[in-house]
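dude i think i finally got it to work??
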Amino acid sequence: MVRARGILLEIRARLPSAMKKSLDQAAGLLTLRMPEGANAAFEAAEAIVSGALIGIGSLPVIPREIEDILSISTTERHRWLKDGRLPSAGTRTVKLRGRAKKITFHVFDTRTVEDILDRDLVDAWREDDAITAAENRRQAVWKAKLRREQKKSAAASSAPRLNADGSPRPQLIGWEEFERDGPL
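look at this
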């Protein structure tokens, strides 16, 4: 199951810090391991895990999980979230142990993720991104060409124009348009 890691992290967050290392996940199964003499602690942890598993189906999908489920990169997730293709179900703020700052990240609705998978939107979005990138590259090449031409024309207009004998040519009104357009 792809969501097993996210579920493990969510349930570990609900456990007391002394019991967090006792809960592990392997092959899609959650395993609670404690020393033999800790029956009361085991029963308390079991109650917390059982209570957390009741509403696990409605648990929002965290960024790491959605990247695994949809097989997308972090860059794609950020781009699609920013332009609204990947709708967020809200944000979650957590304070990690040992860090002074809290971190905030977007979470995603499970039904929305299922809908994206069912309609195969990831491939369509990637095709759209490839078309957009090609168009952006084409426009950048065109703009660079225009800049080079403007730079050349500015350098040519600043240099004095000379006749064949080396004398400066008179500045005629409309001469630039004539040279640009050519005769008739």
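The longest helix spans residues 121-158.
im so relieved honestly
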